[in-house]
Structures are given as C-alpha cells and as structure tokens.
Amino acid sequence: MAKRFLICGACGFIGSSFAKHLWLKYPDSEITVVDVLTYAGSLDNLRELHTESRLQFLEADICDVGALPKLEDIQFDLVVNFAAETHVDRSLYYTSEFVRTNVLGTDSLLSFCRKTDSPMLQISTDEVYGPARENETFSEAAPLNPSSPYAASKASADLLVLAAIKTFGQKAAIARTSNNYGPRQFPEKLIPYFMYLARQGKPLPVYGDGKQQRSWLYVDDFCSALLRVVDDFPKGEILNIGAAREYANLEVVRRLTASLECEALVNHVADRPAHDRCYRIDSRKFEQRYGAIDERDLTDGLRQTVAWYQSHPENFDRLRTQDAVSFRDKHYRNRT
Ligand SMILES: NC(=O)c1ccc[n+]([C@@H]2O[C@H](COP(=O)([O-])OP(=O)(O)OC[C@H]3O[C@@H](n4cnc5c(N)ncnc54)[C@H](O)[C@@H]3O)[C@@H](O)[C@H]2O)c1
Q: Taking 90 as the threshold, does the pLDDT of residue 336 lie above it?
C-alpha cells in the first residue's frame, strides 16, 4: 500500500529538502504538508512538488493540527516535525513565539499522533546540549543545557516527546542535527546572509572573535541520512545526526568568500549574549544502526550552495519583506 507522510514545516529550509528526498524515494507515496508560512517558509521551496496531486498542502499552524478536518483520523506511516521558529537571534526578542510554536506546537502534534496512532519524528538540534568544552563530545545521553531561548524551546519540545514516549508508550523519536547549510535557507541565516552582503561589497558582521565552532552538514546529506529511519523507525530513541568536525566561524567565512571569489571585509561586532563557543555531537549511535553519514566536504558544499544562490538570486528578495527589514533595522542596524 502507498505510504502516507505528514511533514510539518516543509516549506522551510530542511523540511523542503526532506520532502523532495521522500518524494523521490517513495514514488507512490502521498505527502501532506502542514505549514503556516511564516517569514521563513515559502511555497516556492516546494515548487517542483506542490502542483502534483500526491502532495497536499495545508496552510495551517501545527498548534491547530488536531482540528484540521482534512487530517481527521488519518493514520500516517510517518509524521516528521520540522515546523519551528529557528533563528537564534530572533529568539532573544520574540521568545513567546518560540515557546508557542516549538513547545506548544510539538505538544499539539504529539496529541494528534497519539490520536491517529502515527509515528512521529521530532527534528531537534545539537544546541540543546549547550556548549561543549575542548575534547568534549555529546552523546544522546548528555544532559540538556540550552543557552538561548531557541535552544531552550527545542529542549523543552524534546522533553515533551520523551515524556510522551514514557507516559503513553507513544511511537516517537528525536533526531538532533548540527548546523545545516545549502539551498533554500532563509537568507537571514549566516551563510546566505553573508553571501548577500558580500555580493554588495558590504562588510560581514562576525559575532565577537569569530572563533565559535560549529559543525556544518549539507542539507541533502542530512536528509539522505534521515531517510534511512523511515523504514526502520527508531521508536523511543534519540539519534544525533551531525557533521563529523567543527569549524570556527571565521574559517567558514574564509571558505565562503573563496567560493564567491571575492574579498570581503570582516567586521567584528559585539558578541550575542550567551553565544555558545562550540557544539560537538557524537553520531555513532546513528551510524552503527543506519550506516555512515555520507557527508560532503565543507568547501564542496559551500561551492554548491553558492552556485545555487547565484542561479536563484530571487531568493534574496525574501530579505525585502517588511518583517525581514524591520527585524534587521531594529536589531542589526546599530551593531558595533
Ligand atoms: N537549520 C539548521 O541548521 C538546523 C539545525 C538543527 C536543527 N534544526 C531544526 O530543524 C527544523 C527545521 O529547521 P529549518 O532551518 O528548516 O527551519 P526554517 O526556519 O527554515 O523553516 C521552518 C518552517 O516551519 C514553518 N513554521 C513555523 N512556525 C510554524 C507553525 N506554528 N505551524 C506550522 N508551520 C510553522 C515555517 O513557515 C517554515 O516553513 C527545526 O525544528 C530546527 O529547530 C535546524
């Protein structure tokens, strides 16, 4: 029988890539997308799919998912939750929106999945573990120690998923990934934003000394890895799925500008409060069960990302919406 999938937040960066992977791997499947289309979501991200009859798009909030008549009583083969408020910088100013979507939204989706007996995969982040010290790597058993309101809301959502597993025996699992990069990311995030500025010859505002370390996983590599859990659902488990090594932000900027073939001036601006120095997760549990994460080299991935944005310059128009302009005016304009 054809599989039925529900993907929440599939008009965003990672969710749209995952929907495409799913589409190709399961050519008979029916995919339902629930997305409220915040500033970060765009139907254009699903351009190749959304006119197809086996994709149903519902413009709706995950907080209301249980009340959607079109979903009533459907048992999905898998529900994946990418829907979230995701920009750490924004979480400093709009905390309650993060709590609403990331925490209450996850709770609402958990209830829906219990009611319909659908397995649910919650997409989470390495940021829930907080900063790693030198030589420290976090396995799934590490304590949660989030620093930003974003990370705290994601950690809270994870706790709700874990509680539902324990309390109700719910068929649910959590995948925690590291920084993703690649096509279709909302251009307010570091890599596309720096591309946007560099193209205009503007300085690149690097937080603090720029030595914060992050592991960068190309979005297609994450989604290919994630696809492996569809037919072998890790019920009740947490799985880290991260890039193998981390790079200082300044090094990412150096490789990015090399891919852009331009010289860009770095402007060190005041660091973000509670900006974690390093995230480092251990993905061995995932790799032992599902095989190695097939990860492309950062320089190659950045070249592909740059090539995509160069052939889709209209993506930067998304920075011109009133919401995006007013966020930057209020919070970025006077950074020193
Ligand atoms: N991007 C990363 O580097 C990264 C790293 C680790 C984990 N994650 C996690 O992966 C998931 C996807 O991240 P992303 O970067 O693709 O996010 P994104 O911001 O690009 O997309 C989020 C999507 O969710 C939708 N959405 C937001 N609020 C909603 C609501 N209330 N109801 C329905 N839809 C809503 C938005 O419209 C958008 O389409 C998130 O849960 C995030 O925490 C992302």
A: no
pLDDT in tens, 223-241: 999 999 999 999 999 999 9
> What is the structure's pLDDT at 53?
84
The verdict on the CB of residue 18 being under 6 Å from ligand 1 is no
Closest residue CA from atom 12 of ligand 1:
82
Query: Ligand 1: distance of its center to the CA of 265 in Å?
Result: 30
Pocket test residue of 16, 32, 38 for ligand 1, highest count of atoms within 8 A of CB: 38
Domain 4-185+217-245+281-296 fold: Rossmann fold (3.40.50)
Question: HEC states along the chain?
Answer: CCCEEEEECCCCHHHHHHHHHHHHHCCCCEEEEEECCCCCCCHHHHCCCCCCCCEEEEECCHHHHHHCHHHCCCCCCEEEECCCCCCHHHHCCCHHHHHHHHHHHHHHHHHHHHHHCCCEEEEEEHHHHCCCCCCCCECCCCCCCCCCHHHHHHHHHHHHHHHHHHHHCCCEEEEEECEEECCCCCCCCHHHHHHHHHHCCCCEEEECCCCCEEEEEEHHHHHHHHHCCCCCCCCCCEEEECCCCEEEHHHHHHHHHHHHCCCCCEEEECCCCCCCCECCECCHHHHHHHCCCCCCCHHHHHHHHHHHHHHCHHHHHHHHCHHHHHHHHHHCCCCC
Catalytic residue numbers read 126-127, 150
- Per-residue pLDDT band for 50 (boundaries 50, 70, 90) equals low
pLDDT tens track for 123-156? 999 999 999 999 999 999 999 999 999 999 999 9
Domain boundaries, the chain: 4-185+217-245+281-296
